[in-house]
Design brief:
Blueprint: H1 3-24, H2 29-37, H3 42-48, H4 52-55, H5 63-73, E1 104-105, E2 108-109, H6 117-131, E3 138-144, H7 147-164, H8 172-177, H9 182-198, E4 201-202, E5 207-214, H10 216-225, H11 229-242, H12 249-268, H13 272-278, E6 291-298, E7 301-309, E8 314-315, E9 320-321, E10 324-325, E11 329-330, H14 331-343, E12 347-352, E13 360-374, H15 382-393, E14 400-408, H16 411-420, E15 424-433, H17 439-446, E16 449-456, E17 469-481, E18 488-496, H18 501-506, E19 512-513, H19 516-520, E20 524-535
Parallel strand pairs: 3-4, 3-5, 8-11, 13-20
Antiparallel strand pairs: 1-2, 5-6, 7-13, 7-14, 9-10, 12-13, 15-18, 15-20, 16-17, 16-19, 17-18
Helix pairs in contact: 2-5, 6-9, 14-15
Amino acid sequence: MTATSAVMEVDAEARRILERVAAASFPPLHAVHHLLSVGVCVRCIFRMFGAFSQACSCTSLTVSVLHSFLEERDDSVKSESCSCLSTDEACCSVCFGILLPTCHQDDGVASVDDTSRIDIITSMVSQTVQRESYQIDEFSLEISLPAVVAANERSIRLYVKQKYGKENWFKEEIFSQQTMSVKEALRLLIVPSLEKQLDVKHGNNSFRIRLTYTHDDASLKLTSLLPNDRSRKRKTESREGNDTRRNSTYDDKQILSETDSFIHKTLEGIQDQEFCSLFQLPPEKVFKSCHLVISCLRSPIYIGGRYLKLSRNVSQSCWIIDDERMGEASVEEIIGENVRAICKGDGYKFHAAGREDIDVRMLGSGRPFLIEVLNVRSIPSAVDVQQIAENINSSEKKYVRVRNLKLVDNEIWAMMREGEAEKQKQYAALIWTSSPLTDDDLQKISAVKDMEIIQNTPIRVLHRRSPLERKRIIHWMEIEKVEGSSNYCLLHLCTQAGTYIKEFVHGDLGRTNPSIGAMLGCRAEILQLDVTDVKMDLLQ
């Protein structure tokens, strides 16, 4: 087939679609031409009159083709000096060029002909996925549009109703019900091309491709026209001024999303009569298309297991006071950084079933934990997870070890939180007493079974914990003298989760009652403490 015959075949396809649509659902040709003349693109015209799905796959269905079709059938439509054929009007006054994009993107501006614009965008998406080294087997598509798109579409609807509402062909209920949204139309246009480019299927997947369209000038003007805008601005400025943590891209996107949501809700609350008094009908022509930002994000994955902490100078989480690190390292960083490196994630969050102080070792079967890894480039295989464990366990400094490391579902996090209050914990503590221990003392301590104690918030944590009274259970205790000394002993005990063990030993100036010191009638101090077991069924 020659190039000329191929063009003729494409034009013939476009004309067949136009004839079929004109006979079915289109308004009179003069109304279609008028919509073109006020700046509505071909795709939005088809979309607003319920014919988009028939025409979306035909890339040759352009303004010039539609105008030529109208000209042949309506003597009032002339091509000479017709405003809808002007090359200066680059984008649609409803979709702002989203359905016929000019490909404005972070990396620059690319101008291409109508037949390849969607393919250019999908190529940009594919390049983003490849540049970030994502490994994917499926994707979901998210689309974010500025609120001005909805506002201008409503303006066009009300304008059509005002101009043609009394004509026999106009049916308001059909005009409203048949409309496909800009988001739906763009999805219909772009998903097949994306599937082809990425060679994977679209579905409800944890890997999300997000197309964020913005139009700062139009959005600013729209915001200025909305009622009560000053009040909204004051609230936004107040929140930004008070939140000292607002310095991340995520926070900026969050505020942008909140503002856009506010505008949408405000528009929904405005009745048609008030809307017509606030906004221009039809909306003014648009000479600048939307700006497109392409981003990719994978939902967090979770890797869980149990950790052992073998050092008395390693905190559980990163601990920095006045820019000075407390301790040599943290469990959070040792495990998290090894996981992030293998998974190629943007970051991580560390979750554990309880915690121990920096000077307390975590021994026995270990403490259950989860690492929530953010936006990973690849889902780790069983071999990758094993490599993470080996990297941690073979570290020269031997601060931390991990057991039973595995990829888990996010439900484990909720189960771990629910089990925290019910779990029991076992400890071994080296204790000094001011008076020598007798056999009766040892027997008194070892006879304890399910003893209730009352603990007020310890003095050492009052600066960061609420002053509360807590009831806790000491399930059992065993005590033995350290050989060669009657003032030192080794205490083994099993307690309810949340018991402050150090305070249970020394009494915390009477804030814990009873205590080991009170039971023995002397001063008691804890010298060393180890957690020897965390009794939970998770991640065994």
